[in-house]
Amino acid sequence: MSADTNTTTIQTDSIYLDNAASTPLLNEVFLEMMPYLRTHYGNPSSLHKHGFDAKRAISLGRRRVASIIGASDKEIVFTSGGTESNNLAIKGAATECRSRDSKRTHLITSKIEHESVLEPFRELEKDGFEVTYLPVSNEGIVNADDLKEYLSGSKTAFVSVMLVNNEVGTIQPVKEIANILRMTSKEILFHCDATQGVGKIPINVQALGVDLLTISSHKINGPKGAGALYVRRGVRINPLLLGGGQEALLRSGTENVYGIVGFGKACEINLLNIANNEREISIIRNHLVKKILKDIPDARYNGSRIHRIPNNAHFTISGVNGEDLVMKLDEYGIAASTGSACSSRKQKSSHVLKAMGFSYDEITGSLRISIGSQNTIQQMDRFAMILSQVIKELRKFSPITHQL
Ligand code: PMP
Questions:
Q1: Contact yes or no for 370/18 (Cβ under 8 A)
Q2: What domain range includes position 91?
Q3: Which of 63, 205, 302, 379 is the most buried (most CB within 10 A)?
C-alpha cells in the first residue's frame, strides 16, 4: 500500500492481534469436544454408562489442566472461566478466613488487577474488610518489598496479585511475594490470577508458592465458558454456588463437560508447545516493536522490556485517540485493542495506565497488540504499514495536539 492510499480501500485479509482478549479455538480442540456436544451427553453424576463416559472425560480434562501448572488433579476446581475463578478465590478465601478468626479482615491486592479481581475486593470493603491496593512502578510492576510495609501478621487474611498484566503484559514478582508472605505468617492465603500467563510462560504452582491460582480456557485456544481455580491441598475456601456439591463441594452445578474436554486438550497442546511458542512469538513481537518505533514518529513502547510475556506489545501513540485507531484498523480487517476488552466496552479509561502514572492524553493514545501462534512476520509487516498510514490520517484531523 502506498503512503497516500485512501483509507476507504478496505483490506480483506484479516489479521487478528487481540489474543489477550480471546484466542481462536484449535482444530484438535474442536474435534475432541464434538462428541461431547451430541454423542456423550450424559450427566457426569449419573450412575450409568452415559454418566461414566462424561465423568471419565472430566477426569482426563482435570489431569491435563493440572499438568500445565504442575498441580495434582484433586487441586483443580472447574469453573466457568477466569472471572468466576477470581470471584471464588477472593470471596471464598476472605470470608472463610474471617469466619475462623474475626480479627482477620485485612486484604491486599494491586492497583493493576483485572476488574474481576478488583470488583470482588470492592464488595468485600462494603462488607467490612479493609483492602490495601499496592502501587506499581511506571513500568507496571508491583514492588514485592512494598508488601512488607502493609502486611500485618495477625490481621492480614488474604493477598491477591496477578501473574501477568492483561494490558501491558508485565510479569509480576509472584514468587518473591509468596516468600515474603511465608516469612510473615503461615495463615495468609495467597491467590494469583494467572489468566494471561498460562500457556505463555512456564508455570509451576509449587515453585510460585501460591495457594490459589486462576486459569481461563479461552485465552489458550480453548473454548469460552470454561476455567479453573487451583486450590492447594489443605486450603479451605467458601463456595459461591451451592447445590449438588460438584467439584468437591466448591462449585455446584452440572459440569460443562464439552468445555472441560476442550479446555483440557488446549492445556495439553499449550504445554507441549510452550517453549517453541515463547521463542517464536517473541521474535515476531520484537520485529513488530522495532518496526513501529522506527516507522511511527512519537510512538512509545510501554511496560517492561525484561519482565514481560512474549506476545504483548503496548504503545502510546501521541496525537491519536486509541478507540478511533482501533475502529479504523478494523476497517482494514485488523483486530487490535486499546487495553482490556472488558473495560473498552465500559468506555472507562485504563486504571492500569493511571496506576503507572500516565497522563490522560497518554492513556487516550494507547494501543495493545497481543500476538498468537497463528500470526506471522509477514502479517506484522503489513500491519505496521497500515498502522503507519492510519495514524498519519488520524493525526491530520486530531484535536489532540501532536508535536513532532
Ligand atoms: N483476569 C485477567 C488478567 C484477564 O485478562 C481476564 C480476561 N480479560 C480475566 C481475568 C477474565 O477471564 P474470563 O474472560 O475467562 O472470565
A1: yes
A2: 27-268
A3: 302
How confident is the model over 228-241, as pLDDT tens digits?
A: 999 999 999 999 99
Do 193 and 243 lie in one domain? The reply is yes
Query: Does the beta carbon of 180 sit less than 6 angstroms from any atom of ligand 1?
Result: no
Instruction: Check whether residue 89 and residue 147 sit in a common domain.
Output: yes
Atom of ligand 1 nearest to the CA of 113: 3
Q: How far is the CA of 370 from the centre of ligand 1 (A)?
A: 14
Single-letter code of the amino acid located at 201: I
Q: What is the pTM of this model?
A: 0.94
Whether 81 lines ligand 1, by a CB cut-off of 6 Å, is: yes
CATH number at residue 292: 3.90.1150.10
Same domain (yes/no): 20, 37: no
How far is CA 404 from each of CA 299, 386, 392, 401, rounded to the nearest angstrom? 11, 20, 12, 10
Does a structural domain hold residue 1?
Answer: no
Contact 200, 311 (CB under 8 A): yes
Burial class (CB in 10 A: 0-12, 13-18, 19+), 320: buried
